[in-house]
Amino acid sequence: MIIRLGFFTLMALGLFGFGTVAWISTRPPPPSAAALAAAAKVTVLVAVHPVHAGNLLKPEDITGKTMTWGDAGADGSLDTPDARHALAGAMVRRSLETGDVVQMKDVMRPGDHGFLAAVLGPGMRAVSVGVDAITGTADLIWPGDRVDLILTQAIGDATLPIGRRIAAETVLSDVRVIAIDQQLMQGVAPDGSEGKARTVTMEVTSAQAERVSVATRIGRLSLAVRSADRTLPATPVPAPKTTWASDVSPALGTNVAQGAHSELHVFQGSGDGKEFRF
Fold first, then answer.
1. Do residues 114 and 58 lie in contact, with contact meaning Cβ atoms separated by under 8 Å?
2. pTM of the entire structure?
């Protein structure tokens, strides 16, 4: 009896073990670590609108979008303040469509070797000018913007009318900004601290580069940002015109002699006259 009971016990254990093995073998294998990582949700930077190859990225060109790592790709840029800052002013190597993930292999960032040479058009030059918070339009200029360069000078000739002693004129018109500051990044001082833009680098012709070189020795340079709407037909560039101080302030156009005196001569009889000034 004991032997029979032991036999049935062993049979039951065997059937249970066999069933367990069969159940385990029919279950799907657990996902691998790589599959779990690919399915993880991340927020990456994507293009807001089409960006053509050769253009420089602006802050408004990119935005964050949540997707899986598998869809984003291993080279996708995570949406972080540092990543957005690093991509500002980067050159797009291939055209991006709306919603395309910004892959690091598809951009050349400011500071990368050969950045300026890649950004410049055939036969163009890069020239830099110094600006401050005011003349640089208070840090509102970004790489890719188009600007005019304005020269303001004071003429130290006391014989000229006061309205002709200060003048402004446009030295360059509709040129492209390709970098900002000595670090080629917006708002970063050479020592790495956050600060105002110190230099603006523009894309110019060789003749324009010579004009800028002379202008930097004459007076103060400032920038005027042009409209970003390039769909309008191009208008002819007017001939350079000088704006004088008297054109801005009519009061300076009245050339009143300063310190003039009225005189009165009084004669008594045949004697010498006396002169009174008031």
1. no
2. 0.65
